[in-house]
Amino acid sequence: MVRPSLFRGQLGPESTGEDGYATSSVESYRDGVAYSVEVRDVHKSFGSSGVLRGLNINFAENAVTTILGPSGTGKSVLLKHVVGLLEPDRGEICIFGQDIWSLSDEERTELRKRFGVLFQDGALFGSMNIYDNVAFPLRKNTDLAESEIEEIVLKGLSEVGLSESIKKYPNEISGGMKKRAGFARALVMKPDIVLFDEPDSGLDPVRTSLLCDLIVDMHREHKGTYVVVTHDINTTRRVSDYVGVLWKGELVYYGSVDEAFSADDPFVQQFLSGDSVGPLGME
Ligand SMILES: Nc1ncnc2c1ncn2[C@@H]1O[C@H](COP(=O)(O)OP(=O)(O)OP(=O)(O)O)[C@@H](O)[C@H]1O
């Protein structure tokens, strides 16, 4: 299989298995779990408004971690810190054991190539067809020949069930198809870490379930660290290995998915039940 391997291992021990996908280059282990992303005591304010207030959370390697929490509580801001688009006022974000803000700009740019990000609407380029959208990161970041790019892109689009739509433009396909195309593009560089910002937003329940199955299947196939921000309890149940609940810029609950759904913790109970009575308020 053709694969872009030029960025792997540059910021840590060699991390690819024979198939080119992430095995482990994780340097942080705790309680038998390897963590590829560590968020340590991160503070972030915009003006006078504190959004992240001493946030600590680690994301386990080869696992799907879901982040829940009320609107405006800092989930997207957290994702932007993890991928190095926002710099903390205080605290550290360590990726594969390295504090990303201790790296040079060039090293940080290289590190970002180990991430795949799926935004809410797929963030596709409207002027490019689906094939070219998925090929874009390979053309921009690698020197692979067009024939090699074609092999990777067609395989990726087939995995997300879009083989019949490669010539279509984003405005010609449904919201669910856009998300699947965005997912194929997020995976095309074979990232070690994939971030999903509300992948289920705007989808009906059946399409949400299908997308969840796809996330689980793709994770099983490609492995790596997946972080999913969602408001949807069914999504949480279907895709997660671990669940974290954020509130007012702090982690108020973290546990395995089974623990979360049986927890008597008031934050997690209120969020999972959607109850208006409990510690999570509008403020
Ligand atoms: N670049 C920015 N400048 C100023 N304020 C910002 C910026 N980015 C985020 N914020 C503020 O930070 C807070 C948290 O935003 P964030 O998007 O992380 O919330 P969220 O938990 O993802 O919410 P939702 O579930 O509604 O998407 C909000 O009050 C938002 O207005």
Automatic annotation (TrEMBL):
The keyword Zinc does not apply. It comes from the Bacteria. It holds the Pfam family ABC_tran. Residues 1-23 are annotated as: Disordered. Keywords: ATP-binding, Nucleotide-binding, Transport. Residues 37-273 form the ABC transporter domain. Gene3D superfamilies: P-loop containing nucleotide triphosphate hydrolases. GO terms for molecular function: ATP binding. This is ABC transporter ATP-binding protein.
